[in-house]
Amino acid sequence: MKASEIKKGSVIEVDGAVVYITELQVQTASSRSGNTLYKVRGRNVVNRQKFQGSFKGDEQVQTVDFERRAVQFLYRESDGCTFMDRDTFEQHGFDLEALESELPYLTEGLEGIFALVVDGVAVGIELPATVILEVMDCAPAIKGASASARNKPATLSTGLVVQVPEYLAAGEVIKVNTVSGEFMSRA
Asked: Where's the Elongation factor P C-terminal domain (predicted)?
């Protein structure tokens, strides 16, 4: 596939190493003749080392086949998180660093989580598109504030901070987009 088709959660092969992509940044050239660059960050599946690289948009990238397995979030410890395969009951552990971008959305009983498995090894997790989280702390709600009014920061039950409309108050439950990290609606 072309580098322009790489997405977060893709598994590619780079110089013989299998890499799970955790971050993608698109850098568009300012000149007409310039190429768009796709900067990726990820983890080597075998030795768990960090990977950084960049590709031109039309550059060919070798993809790796992987399996999506439904998993359940079991528990979080000081050094990592454990998930259980819903079909085989096999447990998969990830260190906190490997789940850095997913941690703010993980809650007990969260449905719709998938483990990405390459050659029998879980390399990462895929969250559902949206999660429901409780607002723990924010500035007091302003009476008469409309949905199109200004936003304010709110700290959610997992520690994630998102911008929410002024009419929301602590204790309310909201829906958050896991891709953009933005407030979507009340739950």
From this structure: 131-186
